[in-house]
């Protein structure tokens, strides 16, 4: 089947120019020193829950260059075999660093082995192949469900002491895989996109462009982005649709991502799944703002994770915590816990910090502090839906500065539609439910409780806060302190209980109601009980 290289260079340049993503993340947050365990331990000192220190993986001093295994950085040579040989050889020697020198290293998937640190020198670019056949179809979890996808360009399963460090860039060649919604691009961009080849039409309630016919056909039968097939032959038929995450580390221990730029992923960028002891420090994550499912990092069912000093400019949720979806998620029986996020900046994304919507195995013990959200659709985004189950609890958020938030500064939405908040706003979507006909509470009922938010400054939101709970299990025990929010409208709260807001300063247009409520109990705002 013919493959399309999709975007002409001019179109890519236009998109990047509009998003500004190559310019903005450069050095907005100066990095802290990162050479020792003590430098990273400072991020864990003030965490308001008990967790052990997360030590950096220890790598042997042994090192070899990819050129020692026949690698050529000319942007043409296929280096897939060279990376595979290098990984196995260095791991068998007891571990060490695999050096990637300056150059463009074109390759298929890189599978990690124990005790190997993939180290990119300044000027090194790893560019993954645009040939879908280079990526075998494998079992995995995606969007919280057990399914099959093409193998991730960067992948590991059950490995220990693995890292990606240095100064270079890793590009997933995502333009070759992604379908695009008409509503996310300009007329000129859409025209040029269509002229590059591919298929256009209506799928998933939108006008879309797809790189190939199988992608378009799969879109019409997929549940969100997951498709069900009965046979290997059918899976192969829809291979083009099975775009992978750029990085998928599954059941790994002692992981380090540091210093590198990850960009242009086919689907999500970074996906540690059921991993323990993960450090993500001083990285940059970039995806086009129009990219479907172009998340920054999705930390799923992991334990002991630190994300610090990093920059995100992406097409979907930026920093996201998950734990599986519906029954597949509940069956994991592995909550995402002990997650620390500190000193990060998010420029574009559907949410700056996000929990859900896949949270069916639970999320607990999360600290988010000292971050900036600069133009994200939502600032703090908590989302789920009936059917998920799971409990989200003991979340602590502090010292967050935001500007230019098109929808909500703080959002709890337990009626997630699968769209971004901006898309819902543009469609005028109404999601309110009655408190009269209340379903029974079951294992499928999601619960959000015991959440603490303080010291928030936001200038330029559409709405200050929106709590949209479910009557059978209201959002409960939400404590918000010292928030200064400039917005077009105030607080809208539904199906919530035990909400305590102190030190709230709202700057709203004259005549705008500060607070509207429905089925809310025990709401106290600045010392006043609100009925």
Q: Gist?
A:
This protein has 8 helices and 34 strands. By secondary structure, it is mainly beta. It has a 29-stranded mixed beta sheet that branches. A 3-stranded antiparallel beta sheet has the order 12-14-13. It has a two-stranded antiparallel sheet with strand order 7-8.
What are its keywords?
single chain; 531 residues; mainly beta; 29-stranded mixed sheet; three-stranded antiparallel sheet; 34 strands; 43% strand; disordered N terminus
Question: Explain this structure to me?
Answer:
This protein has 531 residues and is mainly beta. It contains eight helices and 34 strands. The strands form three sheets. It has a 29-stranded mixed β-sheet that branches. A hairpin with a 2-residue loop joins strand 7 and strand 8. The longest helix is centred in the N-terminal third of the chain and has 13 residues.
């Amino acid at each position: 089947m013919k493959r399309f290289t999709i975007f002409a260079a001019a179109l890519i340049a236009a998109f990047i120019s509009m998003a500004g993503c190559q310019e903005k993340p450069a050095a907005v947050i100066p990095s802290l020193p990162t050479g020792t365990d003590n430098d990273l331990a400072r991020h864990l000192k003030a965490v308001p829950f008990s967790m052990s220190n997360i030590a950096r993986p220890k790598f042997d001093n042994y090192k070899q260059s990819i050129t020692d295994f026949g690698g050529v950085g000319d942007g043409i040579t296929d280096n897939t075999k060279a990376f595979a040989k290098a990984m196995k050889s260095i791991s068998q020697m007891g571990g060490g660093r695999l050096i990637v020198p300056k150059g463009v290293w074109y390759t298929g998937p890189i599978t990690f082995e124990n005790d190997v640190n993939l180290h990119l020198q300044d000027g090194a670019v790893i560019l993954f192949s645009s040939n879908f056949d280079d990526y075998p179809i494998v079992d995995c979890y995606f969007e919280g469900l057990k399914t099959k996808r093409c193998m991730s360009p960067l992948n590991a399963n059950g490995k220990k002491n693995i890292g990606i460090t240095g100064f270079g860039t890793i590009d997933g060649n995502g333009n070759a895989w992604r379908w695009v919604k008409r509503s996310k691009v300009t007329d000129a961009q859409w025209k040029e996109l269509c002229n590059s080849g591919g298929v256009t039409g209506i799928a998933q309630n939108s006008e879309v462009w797809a790189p190939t016919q199988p992608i378009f056909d799969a879109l019409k039968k997929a549940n969100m982005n997951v498709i069900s097939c009965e046979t290997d032959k059918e899976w192969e038929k829809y291979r083009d649709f099975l775009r992978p995450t750029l990085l998928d580390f599954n059941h790994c221990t002692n992981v380090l991502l540091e210093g590198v730029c990850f960009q242009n992923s086919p689907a999500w960028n970074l996906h540690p799944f059921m991993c323990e002891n993960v450090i993500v420090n001083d990285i940059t994550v970039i995806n086009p703002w129009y990219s479907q499912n172009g998340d920054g990092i999705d930390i799923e069912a992991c334990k002991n994770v630190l994300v610090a000093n990093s920059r995100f400019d992406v097409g979907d949720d930026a920093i996201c915590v998950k734990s599986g979806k519906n029954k597949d998620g509940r069956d994991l029986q592995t909550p995402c816990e002990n997650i620390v996020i500190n000193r990060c900046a998010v420029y574009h994304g559907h949410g700056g910090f996000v929990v859900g919507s896949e949270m069916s195995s639970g999320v607990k013990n999360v600290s988010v502090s000292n971050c900036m959200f600069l133009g994200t659709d939502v600032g703090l985004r908590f989302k789920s839906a009936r059917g998920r189950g799971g409990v989200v609890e003991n979340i602590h958020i502090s010292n967050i500065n935001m500007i230019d938030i098109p929808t909500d500064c703080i959002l709890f939405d337990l009626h997630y539609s699968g769209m971004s908040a901006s898309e819902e706003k543009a469609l005028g979507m109404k999601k309110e439910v009655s408190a009269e006909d209340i379903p029974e509470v079951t294992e499928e009922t999601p619960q959000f409780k015991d959440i603490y938010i303080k010291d928030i400054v936001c200038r330029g939101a559409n709405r200050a806060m929106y709590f949209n709970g479910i009557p059978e299990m209201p959002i409960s025990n939400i404590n918000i302190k010292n928030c200064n929010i400039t917005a077009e409208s105030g607080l809208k709260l539904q199906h919530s209980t035990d909400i305590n807001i102190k030190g709230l300063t709202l700057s709203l247009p004259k005549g705008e109601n500060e607070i509207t409520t429905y089925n809310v109990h025990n709401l106290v705002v600045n010392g006043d009980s609100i009925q």
